[in-house]
Amino acid sequence: MDINLKISAQFEAVFLINGKFSEGGTVCYGTTDVVYITALPLDAVLLPYTIKLVGGTVKNNLTLAKCFKLARDSYFLKLLPRHNYVYSPENAFDAAQKKSKIERFFQHVKKGKLSSARELLSEDLNDSIDDKSLSAFFDGFFEIVSTETAGHYYLIKSDGEGVLYNFVTKGGLIDNILENSDLS
Fold first, then answer.
1. How high is the pLDDT of residue 180?
2. Strands (E), 80-171
3. Minimum mean pLDDT range among 25-34, 105-114, 116-125
């Protein structure tokens, strides 16, 4: 079985994938293959780094690279920027401006900023859910990954597996959240 790996960097970059230049996208390789991916940032402030992947598991630079299983043979690799003065993603430049409303909503809920999260909900959904239920809905998830389909996001569980959800919007606000059981 092959693995289809989608590479997403939180910064503009080109990549060396096993020594060959690439602009990213999707890479296909065998489940037992070792893949080396070097991120070469296009911003001079950022430093390049290399990660080693075996199957769908990141083996080094764990604070800068996360790999999530989205479907049976589909993985998502998220690469964070590395600065020359801090070797940690906690102090990386703020990418909040690039996040969608749905990603911001998820982050607000996970950080306990429920009043900010509620500002992104429709009036009907806001009135129908209490704070405890809103927080509990996202228990067990620690990351959100956008798909190429509008409103569809993978919520990533602590074991690294993704669950597909459809965030239905109305008037630019989240009106419903539905789990999509079709992960094909």
1. 83
2. 141-146, 152-157, 162-170
3. 25-34
